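Q: Predict the bound structure with flavin-adenine dinucleotide.
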Amino acid sequence: MPLFKKSEDWEDGASEFRGAGGPIRVERARNLHPVAAALIDAGRSYGMPYLDDVNVPAPEGVGPDNLNVRDGARCSPSRAYLRPVIGHQSLMVLTEALAVKLTLSGTRCTGLDFLLDGQVHSVRASREVILCAGAIHTPRLLLLSGIGPQADLHQLGLDTVIDLPGVGRNLQDHILLTGLCFEAKRPLPPPNNNLGGSTFFWKSRSELGVPDLKFVAPGVPLVSSEIAAQYPIPPNAFSIVPGLVRVQSRGYLRMKTTQHDGPLEIQPHFLTEQADVDALVAGVELGLDIASQPAYRDLIKRWVAPTRRMSQEETVAFLRRACSTYFHPVGTCAMGSGSEAVVDAELLVRGVQGLRIADASVMPTIPSANTQAPAVMIGEFASRLLVHSRLAARESVPRS
Ligand SMILES: Cc1cc2nc3c(=O)[nH]c(=O)nc-3n(C[C@H](O)[C@H](O)[C@H](O)COP(=O)(O)OP(=O)(O)OC[C@H]3O[C@@H](n4cnc5c(N)ncnc54)[C@H](O)[C@@H]3O)c2cc1C
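A: Predicted complex:
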């Protein structure tokens, strides 16, 4: 919590759960698109509490999104953290440089090889290497360097430097149902607020302790190609999109070739767990209930997908065609202490010296909301670890 708070500059200022003065500006979405504004009204008439701030512990209700925006532009981690120090003499940023392999001396990471302008270059680390290539590419770089499940590496013909069975396993993602689509009565304005602007958290079953569904309402038709093939989508249409944010399914990723940029097998195992199917069946029903509220009745000319309420069986078939990623992959180099853990509590890769990971791949369990803020928090955590280790190294030098 202190690191989440340190990273942000919330427009209402600091509180028990919010930070102020940090690099990432966070504001409520403004100028809501009619489709996003209707989600709030529809949620309220359905019986959901209004959340003035959706970023609270165990949120349950509807409200405006939190967005990373400063002065009307996206306040990305690059803009917030990197730009202010870009001229610092101890920092060099190489764009268009692709890391292809870690270099190891025994089990110590000594640096890495990267491609720039078609040439392989090497860079040596005097202290340590910190990988932050994300939940897909960080495990790939480990595998390319011989760090991963021995059987998989052997099958690819790669030598195993460190047998770490958890590399590429434990892939978790939220599920987005890109299926519910409605034709609008009047021409819709162009989408804004990053295709959102409002959201609600709700429980798929009242017995749950915390919400497992998170909806968004983009002002455009957001439908999978399978749904579009079954239901012709008119141009002036929009979606109400259920998301499952407490997903039970666990997948994996594997390299299919030893090429550094070769195809990967990415298997999220969506909908293999009956609990996920049941939650999303409830999500489809809830989406149609929301579309039936007065706020949307004023906007909707006709239901496009589905065209009517469906039986349980039809709903399952529908959601299997509508199932998609929420773009939140995590967990492929999970932190922990068991045999599948890849990093320890200090982000150090187990069995390797001088190598840490600081990105979404270390999350052992996917958070129950969007993953960018937790990824930034992990960056803050890594930064604190480095400051501490540097101070510790300085203190161990005898003073004259
Ligand atoms: C389309 C999309 C929309 C999203 N929307 C939201 C949202 O609205 N809210 C939210 O909270 N989250 C959102 N997310 C998720 C969020 O962006 C991620 O969870 C977060 O960026 C993860 O951070 P990371 O540092 O782990 O990885 P990344 O942000 O992916 O950073 C990894 C970096 O490493 C670089 N890289 C990878 N491989 C190499 C290599 N071999 N050599 C050199 N560089 C390399 C990549 O180019 C990238 O810059 C979205 C994601 C996507 C894809």
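A: The radius of gyration is 23 Å.
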